[in-house]
Every structure is written in C-alpha cells, then in structure tokens.
Fold this sequence. Notes:
This protein is of the alpha+beta class. The protein has a single domain (41-286), classed as L,D-transpeptidase catalytic domain-like. It has helices at residues 2-30, 54-57, 63-70, 202-211, 258-266, 269-286; strands at 41-45, 82-86, 111-116, 121-126, 129-135, 148-151, 155-160, 168-176, 181-185, 198-200, 216-218, 222-225, 229-233.
Amino acid sequence: xxxxxxxxxxxxxxxxxxxxxxxxxxxxxxxxxxxxxxxxxxxxxxxxxxxxxxxxxxxxxxxxxxxxxxxxxxxxxxxxxxxxxxxxxxxxxxxxxxxxxxxxxxxxxxxxxxxxxxxxxxxxxxxxxxxxxxxxxxxxxxxxxxxxxxxxxxxxxxxxxxxxxxxxxxxxxxxxxxxxxxxxxxxxxxxxxxxxxxxxxxxxxxxxxxxxxxxxxxxxxxxxxxxxxxxxxxxxxxxxxxxxxxxxxxxxxxxxxxxxxxxxxxxxxxxxxxxxxxxxxxxxxxx
Length: 287
C-alpha cells in the first residue's frame, strides 16, 4: 500500500513538473522578450541654429529618434528653443518608447492602438506585443481630441479636411466618422496643434494606414464588421512645459505601465472582443 502511495505521489509530482514546464514554455512563446536599455537625456539648445545645419547636429540615423522623442517633424525641429537628446542612440526605436513592449491582457486582441494625450505618442499592439510606436500631435486646447474607445472605419490616401478645404490630409484613417476625427500625416510642431485629429510623421502614417483594418459596410450605413479598436486616453498639461522635457531629469517620466494599459482595456474589453468575433465570423464566411 505504501509503495503504491509513493508511486502515486511520484506520478503526481512528475505531472505537476510537466505542467509547470509546459506553462513556462507557453509563457516564453507568448511573451516576446525585449530588454529596454536605460537611457538618459539632456537638453540641447537649438534656438538660432540655421535650418541647414541640422546635419551637423544629428546623423540621418539619429534624426528619427530626435523627432520621436521631441514629438516634432524635421521641418519644425529647429523652430523650438531646445531639444531633448538621448545620451546614446540605439537602432531599435523601442528603447525610447513610453509604452510597454508586451501586455498579457491584450493577448486575445488581434490589433489595438493607444493614443496617449499626456505623452503625445501612440502604441500599436498585436496580441499583446507592441509592433510600433511613434509621436503624435493631437488636438489643441480649444479643439481637443475626444478620449475613449473608437474603431477605425474608412480611409483615404488623400482627402480634404472638413474644417478647411485647403488642408490636404494624406494617409488619413478616420476613427470617428460623424466627428471627422482621424489620424493622418500633417505638420508636427512639437505640441498639440490640430483641430482634434491625430497628426503623425509620414512613416508612421503610412504604417498605420496599411496595418489597421477598415470597417465592413452593407449598403451606406449598416456596419457588418468594425475596424481596429483605438483607445485615446489622458489629458495634456496645456500652458505648462512639454511633458517630454522632464526626461532630462527623469528618464522614466513618460512611461506608461502595463497595469495602466490593462486598466484602460478592462472597461472596454467585452465590447472589443464582441466586435472582433463578429469580424472574424465574417471573414470565415467569405472563405
């Protein structure tokens, strides 16, 4: 009897160890590893520097990092008084991201995009893994970008603004049809300056344009399937210093925790998964 008991305990132990190993293996497969390097920053005055001198300050490889960190495009880079400059330049832009690289709570969501008002940055995720992040300039104080959950709907490589017909919006992807809010390529002066849209640099605008999903319509107004979920969150300190300037004294000042992302999703997750299931079913029926 004792021998049988010992054998049973041994078998259970082996089973438990096997489960632990399988769990660890699954966790390794599901959680891509990325070790973010600790980077410090300093302020570099650029007021009065001639525009044609930019190549003397930064190499072609460094420019995308400077633009991302300062939320500014190349044409406006030397129109500011100072730039936040990292002490080291890494080829992987993820080292400068305020968003976490992996969020387990997003693992069952095919695609989702977050836009942070205080960080003026976006993070795009596929099944929990961040596939891209970049800078944005969102709505100015009197035309603030609405916050909450949205879904991408229609897109156009080039369209005309509903606010001013002289404004040409390239790589435009609408997220709030009736309000006319969307992301697109446009001037990025390094602070919230839009009429509620989400401005992007050209490479980011093109990437999100191709990456996100359009809605599926039946007729003119019946939505058969929704597009990619988008969560816009937080508030910007209008009238105060640019939030990324604090990186010079606190390199983690803009970091958005996994817990924050998980909390943002938890409120909307049931709706997101319901619409995702609806879209998946439509795709299966077409096969």
